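Homework-ish question, so no full write-ups if that breaks the rules, but can someone show me the predicted structure for this set?
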Amino acid sequence: MKIYEMKIAPNPRRVRIFLAEKGIQDIEYVELDLQNGDNLTADFKQKNPFAKVPVLELDNGQCISETVAICRYFEELHLEKPLMGITPIEKANIEMWQRQIEFFFFLPTGMCFQHTSGYFKDRMKPIKEWGEECRTQICKFMHMLNKHLESNQYIAGKAFSIADITALCTMDFNRVNQISIDDAQPHLKRWYDEVSARPSAKA
Amino acid sequence: MKIYEMKIAPNPRRVRIFLAEKGIQDIEYVELDLQNGDNLTADFKQKNPFAKVPVLELDNGQCISETVAICRYFEELHLEKPLMGITPIEKANIEMWQRQIEFFFFLPTGMCFQHTSGYFKDRMKPIKEWGEECRTQICKFMHMLNKHLESNQYIAGKAFSIADITALCTMDFNRVNQISIDDAQPHLKRWYDEVSARPSAKA
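A: Not a homework solution, just the prediction itself:
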């Protein structure tokens, strides 16, 4: 099995942390340089027509793209050390949080970066006003998350889950947007320090 | 069990179609008027702090929001008639398509509507240029989807899945953006006619 990725990008890091938490190590990683367009070749678009990383390539050649779909594959293969829940209600609750983190935190973070930095301006149309609006949404969400974490050890409650991985990678990636946890967010800071200290955070 | 929804909105329709496909009927629906702000009350924000519909309320009072998390709950409770796959690779492949439809079709569709129509202008900042950029992305995605459906009966391959439900609801909701399938997209049209003819489409 191979994973095509770019080590500094947030989505590949989500997969690496997920695999580290599950103790899965027998994966070959292929590094692509996205700014150089390594993902825009005809060969790579055969693996993922949307030209995004990460992509998991199985030994039979079948490719799975989309971070959470790749995580799902490994979760289903290795049900021990669950990161997506076991019972129906646990699975639903974790998926709810995972998606809220994605829609209200991860996606605005990526769009804020792309629309204000000009990083991919050769292949998209940056709209600065939209990037700034995303920045406002990110800060608003962090405020809500701080309140939520006052009475919850982890994002989805008592157990560490894929939702914490998504939130950690989003928080760290916000360095590119010059957004960080502020002094008025002690619960967010407590959670951040705790999940950052897990060995998987270095994956 | 209760589901809080607004019947004409696309996310609640995704859940209704999902439940119809699985033959689940014993649900009470509570209609909210979003434009009137029924979702902005303190009571509703207890159920979902993000004030979105649909929300599933269980008999014990626990609430699950996020369309796909609600679907996951029912999928796990009723594994017969699977709409999210059975084997690890089927689950991963369906989730990949489901997410691609969401990120590259459903989300731009919603943002195109919100940023160009002014529908929620009392509670968000519409940026017309961003709405128009979303329109461009939608049309580009429909072109790719048409090609994909030339050699695939359904979005995720041979079996009808949650990805088809998301795509159908997105396609229909695009009426508000005046976007429809054009004559150069016969495979998309073939798929659309087929999934629209399923009894669940009327749910």
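Now go work out the reasoning yourself. Hint: The first strand of chain B starts at residue 2 and ends at 5.
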